[in-house]
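Margin note from the TA: students keep mixing up input and output lines. Inputs are the sequences; the output is the structure of the whole complex. Example:
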Amino acid sequence: MDHRLFFPATQRNKICIGDVLSEIHLKKGFVLEIGSGSGEHGVEFQKRFPDLIWQTSDPELKHRKSIISWIDHEKLNIKMPKPLEIDVTKSPWPIPFKLVDSLQLIISINMIHIAPWECTKSLFKESGKLLNYGKFIILYGPFKIKFKHISESNELFDKSLKIQNKAWGVRNLEDINQEAIINGFQLNQLIQMPANNLTLIYEKVS
Ligand SMILES: C[S@@+](CC[C@H](N)C(=O)[O-])C[C@H]1O[C@@H](n2cnc3c(N)ncnc32)[C@H](O)[C@@H]1O
């Protein structure tokens, strides 16, 4: 059965996010994606960065089914592992040892604003345990800077998120930085992306 989901935003942003990843020059090893959603990013990046092993994850069954269908559809079964069932708030994350040994990067795209703040805290806490010195965690999405939205459309989007769920909302950069510091990371790069999104690259420094 084909369970593939199609997320329009994902189709729009996958190339520019891939361009950012290509600048990091990752060595061979695993990338762990948190909140992979449909799996469209996963298969795109697995094809674009064949030296890496792209490990997807998502807490939702329908998303994991979509990811498996995308992997089948793109004939990446030999290369790409099946998605893991990771809810960032449930510690420890169920991760195979071989992944921990050669984990290069943790990435989460458009997740932390569609989840309670607790998820951002857990994301950094668990990533801090898994990533070695010099490795990265990357976040992509809309963010506030100094508690201000960087565009009117982001402000409207934030309001719409909060109507859907009071615990959701566009996160503030300085609050995220604080969680990063607590867990041994520092903001290494802030990259402006199309459609008023940002990519935040945090490096493990302790
Ligand atoms: C807006 S979707 C983004 C999906 C994908 N990253 C993309 O950009 O197309 C948000 C994703 O975060 C996942 N998510 C929500 N809460 C989560 C949690 N507590 N732990 C991990 N993932 C979570 C959802 O299941 C969903 O797949």
